[in-house]
């Protein structure tokens, strides 16, 4: 049974997911005026913040994305004349990234736009509340990093609750499974959208 603390945590994680989607939509709407989305704008912004000559791998890590997916976006930005790839003088197998003048100009405009967007979205929230929110996020970020570095799960698994009725139901499903597989060429039917969790 959930405790009041569990209910608060569930509400918090639900809000985080909703806020993430809503902020992304708001930022994408604002970035559309520049012909960009967050996917294409963020590499330009982050590369500018990290400094000239950052390696692709370092940029991917800073953005929290996989290298191959970033490469595709960088290809688009190179084609658009916003970023240049150059050989790393210390390792010719590696590439460094450099904003072009157009990239620097665009980054400055986008950074200014995002400042105004954040000011509008966070208007009316007290500085103390923002500081408290940042402390919570920093703690959560550390906890998630620790969780990901641990082998296996970081929690005690909860055994399923089995009743006589549920046992019979499971047995009935199991016994019917071979027939369903035969009817569909060995592949169970895909559940409808209402049945999917």
From TrEMBL:
Coiled coil segments of this chain: none
Annotated GO MF terms: DNA binding; DNA-binding transcription factor activity
Keywords, in A-Z order: DNA-binding, Transcription, Transcription regulation
UniProt xrefs under InterPro entries: HTH_MarR-typ, MarR/SlyA-like, Tscrpt_reg_MarR-type_CS, WH-like_DNA-bd_sf, WH_DNA-bd_sf
Claim: Ubl conjugation is one of the keywords in the record: no
Residues in HTH marR-type domain copies: 9-142
Region (Disordered): 172-197
Pfam families referenced in this protein's UniProt entry, alphabetically: MarR_2
One GO biological process term: response to stress
PANTHER family assigned: TRANSCRIPTIONAL REGULATOR SLYA, TRANSCRIPTIONAL REGULATOR, MARR FAMILY
Protein name stated in the entry: MarR family transcriptional regulator
Source organism: Achromobacter aloeverae
């Amino acid at each position: 049974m959930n405790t009041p603390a569990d209910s608060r945590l569930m509400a918090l994680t639900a809000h985080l997911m909703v806020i993430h989607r809503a902020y992304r939509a708001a930022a994408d709407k604002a970035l559309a005026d520049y012909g960009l989305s967050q996917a294409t704008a963020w590499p330009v912004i982050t590369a500018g913040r990290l400094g000239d000559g950052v390696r692709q791998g370092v940029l991917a890590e800073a953005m929290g994305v996989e290298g191959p997916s970033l490469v595709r976006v960088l290809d688009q930005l190179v084609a658009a004349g916003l970023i240049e790839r150059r050989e790393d003088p210390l390792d010719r197998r590696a590439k460094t990234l450099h904003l072009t003048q157009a990239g620097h100009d665009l980054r400055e405009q986008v950074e200014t736009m995002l400042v105004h967007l954040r000011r509008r979205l966070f208007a009316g929230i007290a500085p103390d509340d923002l500081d408290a929110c940042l402390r919570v996020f920093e703690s959560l970020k550390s906890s998630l990093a620790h969780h990901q570095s641990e082998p296996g799960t970081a929690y005690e698994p909860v055994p399923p609750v089995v009743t006589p009725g549920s046992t019979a139901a499971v047995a009935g499903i199991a016994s019917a499974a071979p027939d369903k597989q035969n009817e569909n060429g060995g592949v169970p039917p895909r559940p409808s959208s209402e049945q999917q969790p």
